[in-house]
């Protein structure tokens, strides 16, 4: 039951979004994406926080999480549009997900003062991380 | 009529069961002690190695200290703590009958300081209050946590569960998502415990100090980038009551040690 809750929706077939994901980015980034910056964000515990939950091909990061699928090969399993949509708000695919919504600045409850009114990442940072994830191919 | 009510009850039970599919069955409950490394366990088991025992010593001294001319010490009213305070920590938080208010243990100590001793209550997280908490908690060591529901605190249990299941903060996570649905997994190398409050107050190596359950709650809230409730807030007490219901029957192992 629990396993179904957490493993369901992870495989590409199950996680195909019900709604079509736009190919063109809905975000208005002010500059072209920078995949190297995307990598820095992913490994940074205070910015991306990704490796709290995920693991992946990041040999320099000693402690990685096992709450989520490995990011290795994410770029083979998903199109950039799908990756971006997950980052923006994974709740559109799985209402129970533990993956935080990276581009949502409202709707959360009791957001800490230092973070209120801001999304976890900016539009530029979402594009950077998307571009980086797309390079993770197996 | 009765049959129909019965059916409605069954349906309710089924629904409640479905809502709480993540509840940990009693036989699978693990305390923070059960889940930590052998070294930290050894430190907790040995009263000479457990740094929280220093707080207990200080608490014992405060128990007997006269706060001022003509004012009673704790012992002046309650006598020998080993007898009068046995089991108290295992059944707190509790409802104060005259006021109807819910008190956690530190709140109760503060109320005695204020009302009975006529002194300014020691603030939460002060070494003095933590020392008294640790001394009282020790008097319940090994006793099973009482069920708040069995003592008529259903309303608080329900509010506490609501908070436990509420997503909070910029990261939009609930306590239940980590502690009921992902316990045992690794959050960047830290094993997620089941969040059973058997050992508080406790010495945490990361804090290099003894801290309260509310300090732990605050750490988890700020971890998900949520604004913590203020110290002593009723929300914290409801949460504690819910966690104690979830942990009812587990044994008090305060003052504990955590990595």
Describe this entry's structure for a reader.
- The complex is a heterodimer of chains A (138) and B (259).
- Chain A is an all-alpha fold.
- Chain A has one domain (33-135): Cytochrome c-like domain (Cytochrome Bc1 Complex, Chain D, domain 2), CATH 1.10.760.10.
- Chain A is built from seven helices and no strands.
- Chain A has helices at 2-7, 12-15, 35-43, 50-53, 74-77, 80-88, 123-134.
- In chain A, helix 3 crosses helix 7.
- Chain A is globular and about 40 Å long.
- Chain A starts with a helix and ends with a helix.
- Residues 1-17 of chain A have low confidence and may be disordered.
- By secondary structure, chain B is mainly alpha-helical.
- Chain B has a single domain (29-259), classed as Orthogonal Bundle (Cytochrome Bc1 Complex, Chain D, domain 2), CATH 1.10.760.
- Chain B has a three-stranded mixed beta sheet with strand order 6-5-7. Chain B has a two-stranded antiparallel ribbon with strand order 1-2. A two-stranded antiparallel sheet of chain B has the order 3-4.
- In chain B, a hairpin with a 2-residue loop joins strand 3 and strand 4 (190-191).
- The longest helix of chain B has 18 residues, at 2-19.
- Chain B is globular and about 55 Å long.
- At the A-B interface, helix 1 and helix 4 of A face strand 3 of B.
The helix content of chain A is 25-40%
Beta-strand percentage range of chain A: under 5%
CATH level-3 fold name of chain A: Cytochrome Bc1 Complex, Chain D, domain 2
> Largest sheet of chain B at a glance?
3 strands, mixed
Q: What oligomeric state do the depicted chains represent?
A: heterodimer
SSE order of chain B in H/E notation? HHHHHHEEHHHHEEEEHHE
Percent of residues in helices of chain B comes to 40-55%
SSE string of chain A, helices as H and strands as E: HHHHHHH
Q: What's the pLDDT, averaged over the residues of chain B?
A: 93
The value of Rg of chain B in angstroms is 19 Å
Dominant shape of chain A = globular
Q: What's the name of the CATH homologous superfamily of chain B?
A: Cytochrome c-like domain
Note the gap between the termini of chain B: 57 Å
User: How many whole angstroms does the radius of gyration of chain A measure?
Assistant: 15 Å
Q: Can you tell me the residue ranges of chain B where pLDDT is under 50 for at least 5 consecutive residues?
A: 1-18
Biggest sheet, spatial arrangement of strands of chain B: 6-5-7
The main β sheet of chain A shows up as: none
The counted number of beta strands of chain A is 0
CATH architecture of chain B: Orthogonal Bundle
CATH class of chain A: Mainly Alpha
